[in-house]
Amino acid sequence: MRDTSLFIISGPSGVGKSTLVRQVLADLRGLEFSVSHTSRAKRPGEVEGKDYYFISRDEFETMIREDRFIEWAVVHGQYYGTSKREIEKKAAQADVILDIDVQGAQQIKDKMKRGIFIFIFPPSFEELKKRLYKRGESEAALQKRLESARKELRFYSQFDYLIINDQLDKAVTELEAVILATRCSLEKQTKNILPILQSFLDEF
Fold this sequence. Notes:
Elements lengths: L5 E5 L6 H11 L3 E3 L2 E3 L13 E3 L2 H9 L3 E7 L2 E6 H8 L3 E5 L2 H10 L4 E6 L3 H9 L5 H14 L8 E4 L3 H16 L2 H16 L3
Helix pairs in contact: 1-7
């Protein structure tokens, strides 16, 4: 695997993770989206292989038995997971950004210490509720997601960065700032400055 970074974006359902990730992918170069697998049905407008890999529950469970996921979880009654092959494939080309649930982020944190973990906060409980209402889900599904959000917010302190998605443009700028700052870290830049340092030495 190349010396690439993994940016793990997580937070409650409805907080706007997917919208933020889409905008960042459009703005920044050298960034690949890790497409997750799911057993849920495709929603209107979603594209196979772009939004998710849509597979059956049987297929998903086979992949679990074969240890082909770096993380997986049951979220609102459906399987979601990130395959090891997807990470390896994308990381060979560029930095990788993942949009996953809190359970999945915790699993990756246990296995891969090199990831950058970013938690997306809603501006308030009421605003999150409004956003979920706009999805047109049933009252039962809505209440289930809100209850999950209450539990998931408790884990924010385990993440490296926190972004409050109140104003989309501001949240996008902050997420891009984290990615760009990581690329400028001493660890990442050391290999790039070696020939520069050498050029100074060659002059003496």
